[in-house]
């Protein structure tokens, strides 16, 4: 489909999640970061009202986050929208994002391509606890594309879908949707949304399902990638887990080197770790990973920003 007009996409640079554990100096204006990625559910209290779930932004949590992040721009990376649920997404998340967009505007927002809520026999929605992959079918493409278009229009900033890690060897698929790269291509082209390319998720799937990640990444819609994630993981019970629990594997850095020159709309790269990881990973180790990310970003981007069509 033709891309609808959108606000000029500002190039941000190197980002890091908002977490409470590291020293706030990591987020200082003269620190290693250009922007912060916020998972807004972590600033909320969940409750039930009239039989439905409500996410309330906790004022103290929001104030603390804003104080830590200071003047750094933010982007939103949601977890609990469940954009692929057949019976409807998580309306509590959308309502909460409406409030956040007014109180703390974001440059773009993203969500995992998957689902994690299902309807029960009693007619309620049940959270299964972790995002699950969608079948690679035209029906799923149509469902997600319509919702992605709606989200981009609702907030007036780009909306991105993230390729997910999963541990299922064979997903149901239509014959003309061969794999997750083809699936993402079809959704992005039909919806006009962008992609968040998670290279560690791709690395996990490549290890667990025995395919070549370099061949696969080349077939994603790289011309629509706005943000890239790198992260570390761990081996467990014969699987490589997307646990965001360590330094970035060498192969993931190689994937970043391979992908960045082919992403003309790229606006930011993020090193992801979890709160519990940050509490025991030394700050100098975190800063070392951010320095590596900065070096790769600079090497690939500085020379081409002027001709990329993305606003510097």
Characterize the structure shown.
The chain is an alpha/beta fold and 312 residues long. It has a single domain, classed as TIM Barrel (Alpha-Beta Barrel). Helices cover 33% and strands 22% of the residues. The chain has nine helices and 14 strands. It has helices at 59-69, 91-103, 138-155, 180-191, 199-209, 213-217, 250-259, 275-278, 283-301, and strands at 13-17, 35-38, 44-49, 52-57, 74-77, 109-112, 115-119, 125-132, 159-162, 194-198, 225-231, 234-236, 239-241, 268-272. The strands form four sheets. It has an eight-stranded parallel β-barrel, surrounded by four helices. Strands 3-4 form a two-stranded antiparallel ribbon. It has a two-stranded antiparallel sheet with strand order 7-8. α3 (138-155) crosses α4 (180-191). The longest helix has 19 residues, at 283-301.
Structure in a nutshell:
By secondary structure, the protein is of the alpha/beta class.
Secondary-structure-based class equals alpha/beta
What count of helical segments does DSSP give?
Answer: 9
CATH arch. level architecture:
Alpha-Beta Barrel
Strand composition percent: 15-25%
Q: From N to C, what is the helix and strand string? A: EEEEHEHEEEHEHEHHEEEHEHH
Tally of individual domains:
1
CATH C-level name: Alpha Beta
Q: Mind telling me the C-alpha Rg?
A: 19 Å
Mean pLDDT: 89
DSSP E strands, number: 14
Would you give the CATH topology? TIM Barrel
Please tell me what the overall shape is. Answer: globular
Main sheet record: 8 strands, parallel, barrel
Low-pLDDT segments? 1-5
Task: Report the span from N to C terminus.
Answer: 26 Å
**How is the largest sheet built, in terms of strand order?**
1-2-5-6-9-10-11-14
* Residues in helices, as a percent range: 25-40%
CATH homologous superfamily designation:
Divalent-metal-dependent TIM barrel enzymes
